[in-house]
Amino acid sequence: MSLHDVEAKINAVVQKKPELSGQVAAKLEEILHDLENLSVEEGEKTGLDKLKHGFEKFKKDVYHKKTELTSKLRTGQWPKYMIVACADSRVSPDAIFQLSPGDAFIVRNVANMVPTYDAEKQGAPSIGSAVEYAVLHLKVDHIVVVGHRACGGIGALIKMTPDDGEYKTTFIENWCQIGKPARATLREKHGKDADADSLCKYCEKESVNNSLKNLLSYPFVVDAVKEGKISLHGGYYDHVEGSFEKHLWQCLEQMT
């Protein structure tokens, strides 16, 4: 039985005895607060209890309280944003931007990379299908690519041998090679003069630009940009400093 179910049962009893409503409501609020804030050590018996408690809180505080929103979302979705972000557990667009359900169409992968358009429909159809759906069907107003500090995927990209010889991983390096143009720009501008942390930051930000450029290899993205229906943006989240850098990418200039 969920916390919401318990609350509903108690409220049903209180309705039969209105004179108790004030005292019961205060005590109920106190009990629910204590239950919702149980730590993993104090209250969880299985690894999925955190998810269970989280859903119960979502159902109580969002689903049942924001009825106008949940009713609207039953019939469809109309997000204004498509966000491409890293799968890193520290980089949650919903939390960083305080998004509500329905606000954004979010795609997450290793190192927030967007591959170039593949006319032969090979390569990485997961990203291509998401971009196509967001632009042509959801008709989002903005595509935002979000990079972040201490990205493991970018770290793997930097460490890959110059000749990209035999890979040490089954999937990671093959995927991260999408960012090779960003790595080339990094080496051209900074060589090996900068310290490792700075080099990684440079490449993390340049990789965002690389993904934005790759978006412009998709014909339907180019058409939407030229028609003024969509704009492309890049951003960089620093979870260490708690900062976010945003810039509007001048994509029209890149197409001329």
Automatic annotation (TrEMBL):
It catalyses: hydrogencarbonate + H(+) = CO2 + H2O. Signal peptide: none annotated. This is Carbonic anhydrase. Keywords: Lyase, Metal-binding, Zinc. Binds 1 zinc ion per subunit. Gene3D superfamilies: Carbonic anhydrase. Reversible hydration of carbon dioxide. It comes from the Eukaryota. Its cofactor is Zn(2+). SUPFAM superfamilies: beta-carbonic anhydrase, cab (SSF53056). Its EC number is 4.2.1.1. Zn(2+) binds at residues 86, 88, 148, 151. SMART domains: Pro_CA (SM00947). GO terms for molecular function: carbonate dehydratase activity; zinc ion binding. Belongs to the beta-class carbonic anhydrase family.
